Amino acid sequence: MTLFKKLERGLKEAIEYKEGNKKVAARVHEHKTIVFKPVTIMKPNQIKKLRLSLGLSQKEFANFLSVSHETVAKWEQGGNQPQGVALRLMDILANQGEDLIKELTSGCA
């Protein structure tokens, strides 16, 4: 269909609607809102306890979180606090850590 024909058809439908001869089909889109639970802020000793419970060095823990091992050391010493994705990942690790680590490291040398 040419552009002209599309415009012509659209104009005819608009006139029919205005004159009450045509009803417009309503389109309903349902949107689902997902609400995630808030992450738990971790204290320095909780971060270290989590890392040790998973059997990870600071460097291994840092690699998993995509941060430097210096950053992990600062978190554990209370110099900085984890934020954003790192904090969310630590929250996941605190709840499902051992299984997740096993899954991610299975088959690795």
By CATH reckoning, the class of the domain at 44-105 would read Mainly Alpha
| SSE succession | HHHHH
| Shape assignment | rod-shaped
Number of helices: 5
Low-confidence regions: none
Largest sheet: none
Question: Rg from C-alpha positions?
Answer: 28 Å
Provide mean pLDDT, rounded: 86
Termini separation (Å)? 61 Å
Bin the helical content: 55-70%
Strand content: under 5%
CATH topology value of the domain at 44-105 = 434 Repressor (Amino-terminal Domain)
Specify the CATH homologous superfamily of the domain at 44-105: lambda repressor-like DNA-binding domains
CATH architecture designation of the domain at 44-105: Orthogonal Bundle
Strand elements, count: 0
Which class best fits the helix and strand makeup? mainly alpha
InterPro entries: Cro/C1-type_HTH, HTH-type_reg/antitoxin, Lambda_DNA-bd_dom_sf
Pfam families: HTH_3 (PF01381)
Domain HTH cro/C1-type: 47-100
Protein name: Helix-turn-helix domain-containing protein
Offer a quick outline of the entry.
Keywords: DNA-binding, Transcription, Transcription regulation. With 109 residues, this protein is an all-alpha fold. 60% of the residues lie in helices and 0% in strands.
